[in-house]
From TrEMBL:
Species this chain originates from: Dactylonectria macrodidyma
UniProt key word Nucleotide-binding: no
Lineage of the organism: Eukaryota, Fungi, Dikarya, Ascomycota, Pezizomycotina
Gene3D superfamilies: P-loop containing nucleotide triphosphate hydrolases
InterPro entries (UniProt xref): NPHP3-like_N, P-loop_NTPase
Protein name: Nephrocystin 3-like N-terminal domain-containing protein
Keywords: Repeat
């Protein structure tokens, strides 16, 4: 299992997620989790939650809080996958489209207790 996930991509945005979430102060972002906008977004299909802000405003930390909330909310639900990407100007070399897509695949495939057969088949054929 781990060999296949590492073969998909060595880039692990899950560890970045943990790092960013760990930097938050207790209670940070609770206003966003409690907001009518976030609650409506949770209940609506095919909607985008857009959270703009100037550099340094805390968007990354807030995003990590939302992602953590989604992971907790949908833990164990094999019908819902949660994946994230943190794009950073200083890490452009590893943020090529194929790396980003591979990271999403790794995160979504890793969500299942057993890897999907389609992922195993991809590995076996390459």
């Amino acid at each position: 299992r781990q060999n296949i996930l590492d073969w998909i991509t060595p880039f692990n945005y899950g560890s970045q997620q943990s790092d960013y979430f760990g930097k938050r102060q207790a209670g940070t972002g609770q206003w966003l989790l409690d907001s009518a906008e976030y609650q409506a977004w949770l209940e609506t299909k095919e909607q985008t939650l857009f959270c703009p802000g100037i550099p340094g405003a805390g968007k990354t930390i807030l995003a990590s809080i939302l992602i953590k909330n989604l992971h907790e909310r949908y833990y164990g639900n094999v019908n819902v996958g949660v994946a994230c990407l943190y794009c950073n100007f200083g890490r452009q070399d590893e943020q090529k489209l194929n790396h980003l897509l591979a990271s999403l695949l790794r995160q979504l495939a890793g969500h299942y207790p057993a890897l999907p057969e389609s992922v195993k088949g991809l590995y076996d054929h390459h």
